[in-house]
Fold this protein.
Amino acid sequence: MHPPTSPLNPRTTHSSRRTIVVFGLYRGGTTMVARVLRELGVFMGDRMDPRGNEEDLDFQHADAPSVIELARERDAAHDVWGWKYPGAFLTVQDWYRSLRDPYFVVVFRDVLAAAQTELTSGNFDDLIQTTAMKLEHTAKLLEFVSRAANEKLPTLLVSYERAALDGGPLVDALCEFAGLQPTDEARAAAAAAVDQRRGYGRADGRPPR
């Protein structure tokens, strides 16, 4: 079976202070990956969206200056920390160079499945247009991945469909990629957090196009 992840520019050693950013398509599986990281002991925020989507409200829809300011505050408080916001791909090029030792986790999902979930959640009502939007967003994700690869930044590509089949390989890949050393209990909880069921409903408003 193919692995659920593909690392680009993986580190052989890790600094003691680093930042993990999780993004991908809206309705694209980023919640699952962020939940796994939280279970592995990574601080992913403490003012979380009550809808259960693992998003730090401070980073939701934040513009580039806000992201940079927030990152500096988190740097002062945590050696290893991260955040998840799927829409980060829309602004990442404006702030990624300001992060302290960034590690990027980019989640990919079948665009039709992502579009279908948008319709089920009530965010959109045209399947063809929504699928086309997901294709455009996937192209933007790949644009940043290419930039990160050229700049030798550690980046982990995650297939949501393959990762959701079995929590173990995803947990192993994230630990190796990000230099995490969780307890056996934390590793087991992280593997159990892998689930194809999304766990949250309609978004408050429509995501940016």
